[in-house]
From TrEMBL:
Keyword Magnesium: no
Gene Ontology BP terms: response to endoplasmic reticulum stress
Keyword field: Kelch repeat
Protein name: Kelch like family member 8
Region (Disordered): 1-34
Key word rRNA-binding present: no
Leader sequence segment: none
Organism: Salvator merianae
Pfam families tied to this protein: Kelch_1, Kelch_KLHDC2_KLHL20_DRC7
SMART domains (UniProt xref): Kelch (SM00612)
């Protein structure tokens, strides 16, 4: 069986050399400059890798080593211009199947109909299989909001407590950008918050940053091309349509176009070139409506609504689709899950959660969607379940120590070993009722 160690050292050398040479020559690039650089490097690597492919071919292990390469993630021009023309690839039925999978992936991304197309590990960027899942703040049966955070270690397949926030926060907006975690707004048990704090895994500290203009809880955060958008939310009197944008470099908030509809307890995610606002409550009822923000036009546009009204739902992205999970239909927690494909502008139901979860936090990690905590109508939850799109199934995968609803959940691109375990452990469980 072939392994990653079989790749020749010259290939790695050429990849680095190719980058340096292109930077030094400053050759013209097209609008997809990064892809052009990628093609240049891929060609150089392929030349050195070719001799190794011949050895694998002679040993009958060509397919084994080809499986190590995520062909669908290579530029289509390189796939069809170089890989597809390799005689030893063309002569191997399994390798041709892998090439077909890669071609179908690119067709699928370009909105072409590909019958029976399915995502696989080879269509998932490796960076999506790494990171630390953060569960931040929220509240449990005791009523007081938490300042604690819990982190999921992939390697250990376990949760541990990380350094606490400066403020208690329930119904807090949480997002990870640039390897740091941001917690925005919420309620501390006494008042609504406009403050923001940032966790840096390298210092293991939460640092206060600039505050929003509007204090609110039940907001959603999304990041598109760098800035962070704080969307909707509510206080004791108002559901907001307000949207603020935070510039990380200048540490400043500014207002952008408000949504068409007030949305408290809204879910949000950035997908392709837009920021989506999904569901929420307008002060009268939970909403099934969805709108998206175009930063170039500074405008919100209505898109096709969900099949279910919901607020306090979780929203995340997986394989280019938007998933909305759980939430409340006014007062009842939901177990239903819907998926929106922007290529077809269609919603469809997928497998339901194992239990209803209102106020659930969700995030995508390792090609799966994780749902953390929430309230099932009777009690606050500490269970965690994960959705596998390949088999269309949710299954319980563990639990956090604190039973939480209204927590913020995000995946940070860092190592679990970087984050200091403050040692409270799973014995510190709060009453879940």
């Amino acid at each position: 069986m072939a392994s990653d160690s079989m790749f020749p050292e010259q290939a790695r050398h050429h990849a680095v050399k190719g980058r340096r040479q292109q930077q030094q020559e400053r050759s013209p690039v097209n609008s997809d400059g990064e892809e052009e650089a990628f093609v240049f490097e891929a060609n150089e690597v392929w030349k050195d890798f070719h001799s190794s492919l011949l050895r694998f071919y002679e040993a009958g292990e060509l397919c084994d080593v080809t499986l190590k390469v995520r062909l669908p993630l290579l530029p289509i021009c390189f796939l069809m211009g170089i890989v597809a023309k390799e005689e030893i690839i063309k002569q191997n039925l399994k390798c041709r199947d892998l090439l077909d999978e890669a071609r179908n992936y690119h067709l699928h991304l370009s909105s072409h109909t590909v019958p029976d197309f399915e995502y696989s590990v080879r269509t998932t960027p490796r960076k999506h299989t790494a990171g630390v899942l953060f569960c931040v703040g929220g509240r449990g049966g005791s009523g007081d909001p938490f300042r604690s955070i819990e982190c999921y270690s992939i390697n250990k397949n376990s949760w541990f407590f990380g350094p606490e926030m400066n403020s208690r926060r329930r119904h807090v907006g949480v997002i990870s950008v640039g390897g740091k975690v941001y917690a925005v707004g919420g309620h501390d048990g006494n008042e609504h918050l406009g403050s923001m704090e940032m966790f840096d895994p390298f210092t293991n500290k939460w640092m206060m940053k600039a505050s929003m203009n509007t204090k609110r809880r039940g907001i959603a955060l999304a990041s598109l091309g760098g800035p962070i958008y704080a969307i909707g939310g509510l206080d004791d009197n108002t559901c907001f349509s307000d949207v603020e944008r935070y510039d990380i470099e200048s540490d400043r908030w500014s207002s952008v176009a408000p949504m068409n509809t007030p949305r408290g307890g809204v879910g949000s995610v950035a997908l392709v070139n837009y920021v989506y606002a999904v569901g929420g409550n307008d002060g009268v009822a939970s909403l099934s409506s969805v709108e998206r923000y175009d930063p170039h036009l500074d405008k919100w546009i209505e898109v096709k609504e969900m099949g279910q009204r919901r607020a306090g739902n979780g929203v995340s992205e997986l394989h280019g689709c938007l998933y909305v999970v759980g939430g409340f239909d006014d007062n009842s927690p939901l177990s239903s899950v819907e998926r929106f494909d922007p290529r077809t502008s269609k919603w469809e139901y997928v497998a339901e959660l194992t239990t209803p979860r209102g106020g659930v936090g969700i995030a995508t990690l390792m090609g799966k969607i994780f749902a953390v905590g929430g309230h099932n109508g009777n009690a606050y939850l500490n269970t965690v379940e994960a959705f596998d799109p390949v088999v269309n199934r949710w299954e319980l995968v563990g639990s956090v120590s604190h039973c939480r609803a209204g927590a913020g959940v995000a995946v940070c691109a860092c190592l679990g070993s970087q984050i200091r375990d403050i040692g409270q452990g799973s014995s510190n469980v709060v009453d879940c009722m």
